[in-house]
Amino acid sequence: MDKHREAFKDEAYELLSELETSLLELEDAPEDIEIVGRVFRAMHTIKGSGAMFGFDDIAAFTHEIETVFDLVRNGEISVTKELIDLTLSARDHIRTMLDASDGGEATNEVMAGEIMTSLKKLIPGSEEKKEETEGPAAPADLIDEDDSSPTGLPSPDTQGGNITYRIRFRPSRDIFKKGTNPVLLLDELRRTGKCKVVAQTDAIPLLKDFDPEACYTYWDVILTTRQGINAIKDIFIFVEDDSELSINIIDDGGRLDNAAGYKRLGEILIERGDLIHEDLQKVLGSQKPIGEMLVDAGVIDTGKVQSALIEQEHVSDVRESRRKAESLSSIRVSSGKLDSLVDLVGELVTVQSRLSRTAAYQNDPELLSIAEVVERLTCELRDNTMSIRMLPIGTTFSKFRRLVRTLSNELGKEVVMTTEGAETELDKTVIERLNDPLVHLIRNSIDHGIELPGVREASGKPGHGTVHLSAVHSGANVLIRIEDDGSGLDAKAIKAMALERGLVSHDLEMTEKEVFALIFVPGFSTVKNVTGVSGRGVGMDVVKRGIEALRGSIDINSKKGAGTTITLKLPLTLAIIDGLLVKVAEEFFVLPLSIVEGCVELSREDVARAHGRHVANVRGEPVPYICLKEHFMINSGTPGIEQIVITEVDGSRVGFVVDDVIGEHQTVIKSLGSFYKDVEGVSGATIMGDGRVALILDAPKLLQAVEQEEAGIYSKNAKLNP
Amino acid sequence: MAKTLLIVDDSASMRQIVSFALKDAGYEVITAINGRDALNKLNGTRIDMVITDLNMPEMDGIEFIKHLRSNSGYKFTPVLMLTTESQESKKQEGKQAGASGWIVKPFTPEQLITTTKKFVR
């Protein structure tokens, strides 16, 4: 904009010096109308552009001089020496105002007022008009005088509710010759709301009388919009003088509703003046639809009837959706009902996959198309049902505020809790079962993490500690973080403690992460004095079990002295997961797709090259794998090429060797029942399309089981060769 | 294809700000300094819309619109008048001459574009 302002100022200076010359010429030749025109144009441009570029004061001041010279131009005032003098000083004043905008010397308001008053005296009959022209007219007034200005912002009469209008727009025949395309106006109308347009073609003459440059069509529009009637009129502003435009409110957003639907067709037509009552009565004798009868009787043409029918339909629609909106809000349903709905959807998903399978097997096109539709609907139904069970985690977060307050008082610490992502949604069951683990973690943070105010200040931290709770969506998971700015975990102390308790052996090389993971081992506690709050050594392993029961995982990051971050990764829902169906011999297994990174082949040569170690080379990186066939002791031959499903478990990559990867599978999780509750490495089962059962693998547990087995061998060996 | 608009105004700063706003909105712009200049520049060129000031030396806006409309090539071209005239008479004169619409100075670039869109897509 500054660039434009500069351009305007350059131009204005130029115009002012031109003005000076013109004025002096005019003094010599006061009758020369051409010079008067030049003066007028100079003033006009300064006024018009001045207002455009924000020089409102200049625009207002110049307006007065322009008015005077308009009168001179029309011969109502003659050019006198007094006028020339005044105009010259006015010109100088404008120049000062321009300079002032650049930080030049301030303008002399008194002088400006004097010029104004003297100029006004020159205007004949100015005494009467005084009120109108008194004082420098603000440019806003200039617009306001023109009440039909299209440039004004949308009228402020826009109302809260939707209003339905019936608009008939019959442009003048020569609208095209004015350069206006009525279709663009209808498009503009369309953009303001829900709109139906019917073109009326009954005025189009026969070809021999037809003028291709004339507009014979007119339009009936039914429009539902939030805009007021003036905003709609504004659309037609340039054509309203020459066109026939009628706008009626036919539905005002509820107030006019009567119990019995919308008006009947005959009533609409009569109200519009397209039909007279007598004709309607005459035709009503027979039994065909009224519209058809009216057309048959020749009292009205099809276009009008169609338009009225559309109005009927449109208004019914509007009222229907309003009723829906009114009754919508929300309803309370017992969670038991929701649970059984989820169960049913689960069954349906199972049956649907069976249907798809059968259809694919029989290859009957008709059955296939039905199966496809059922699949699509089931998918939508599943997503909808799941979304009903979703709740924001915020309520849980706010419960912890109280906990934090009580705890910090009890321990004599100052702790502030901040939260983020309270609106993140999670399955209802997950939220309920998340409560206890979160309580444990927050207790731990405050008890073990955050130091006493004195200790904190000594190490240069603010006296009050912070616990930050956040929740965020990440794919099919939700990540919940508990961050504190306390003392952090001491890897050395943890390892020492683990050694003392005999949880690890001396010479075991461990990464920091592995050391941190030790705090989840049952019976571990680093703090000597057991407080009433935490430290009984039952905390963290219970937390871990709780999170794993939700098919989630837990991750620790900590820096000594700076704080600890614990991240919980939880699935959005418990009932149905996307799984990867794999096959080992004749058995099927499902791995949660969320942990799967990819699949690679494992050939005999690869196995041979690894010298019996279960490590595969995946894109240049060694990845350990677990052979499911060996682990579950399935006896069968091994195919020439096996498949490794690469997964991410507890932050590291692990492969699972299977015979065949079948593909993605909508897995409805069924629990195995109490009899199998001790089976490790299997979290549940699912029923497949053909009715067979596939076990759902619990990758972290499987990995642990295998590690423990190996550690057992290791420690046995260690005992054998001390 | 971008629409081409002709701007006729004797004020350089007006031409600048109007073309700037229109180019910003994706239109091609041709400028002329008065009616005579505009007619010379047009000379049969295809144009989608004309935006013209009314008060100009040599040939004013009204005169220009009349000339334009008498040329069969520009019979249906939308013409928008730029005006500070709040008087109805000037506006009526312009409409009589064949102008399609008007916009009152001062206006914002948004107002200009909204009004332009009433006539060209």
Plain-language structure description:
The complex is a heterodimer of chains A (722) and B (121). Helices cover 47% and strands 20% of the residues of chain A. Chain A has 722 residues and is an alpha+beta fold. Chain A has five domains: 2-148, Four Helix Bundle (Hemerythrin (Met), subunit A); 156-329, Histidine kinase CheA-like, P2 response regulator-binding domain (Alpha-Beta Plaits, 2-Layer Sandwich), CATH 3.30.70; 335-388; 393-571, 2-Layer Sandwich (Heat Shock Protein 90), CATH 3.30.565.10; 576-720, SH3 Domains (SH3 type barrels, Roll), CATH 2.30.30. Chain A has a five-stranded mixed sheet with strand order 6-8-9-11-10. In chain A, strands 19-12-13-21-20 form a five-stranded mixed sheet. Chain A has a five-stranded mixed sheet with strand order 14-17-18-16-15. In chain A, helix 3 runs antiparallel to helix 4 (81-100). The longest helix of chain A has 28 residues, at 335-362. The termini of chain A are far apart. Chain B is α/β, with parallel strands linked by helices and 121 residues long. Chain B has a single domain (4-119), classed as Response regulator (Rossmann fold, 3-Layer(aba) Sandwich). In chain B, helix 1 (12-24) packs across helix 5 (109-116) and helix 2 packs parallel to helix 3. The mean pLDDT of chain B is 87. Classes of the chains: A alpha+beta (722), B alpha/beta (121). At the A-B interface, helix 1, helix 2, helix 7 and helix 8 of A face helix 1 and strand 5 of B.
Kindly state the percentage of residues in helix of chain A.
40-55%
Characterize the biggest β-sheet of chain A. Answer: 5 strands, mixed
N/C terminus separation of chain B? 11 Å
Mean pLDDT of chain B: 87
Q: Please tell me the CATH architecture of the largest domain in chain A by its name.
A: 2-Layer Sandwich
Class derived from helix and strand content of chain A? alpha+beta
Helix content of chain B: 40-55%
Please give the most extensive interface between any two protein chains, plus how many residues each contributes: A-B, 40 and 41 residues
Morphology of chain B: globular
> Strand content of the residues of chain A, in percent?
15-25%
Overall number of strands of chain A: 21
Lateral strand order in the biggest sheet of chain B: 2-1-3-4-5
Low-confidence stretches of chain A: 127-159, 528-537
Name the CATH class of the largest domain in chain A.
Alpha Beta
CATH class of chain B: Alpha Beta
In what range is the share of β-strand residues of chain B?
A: 15-25%
What is the chains' assembly state? Answer: heterodimer
What number of domains of chain B? 1
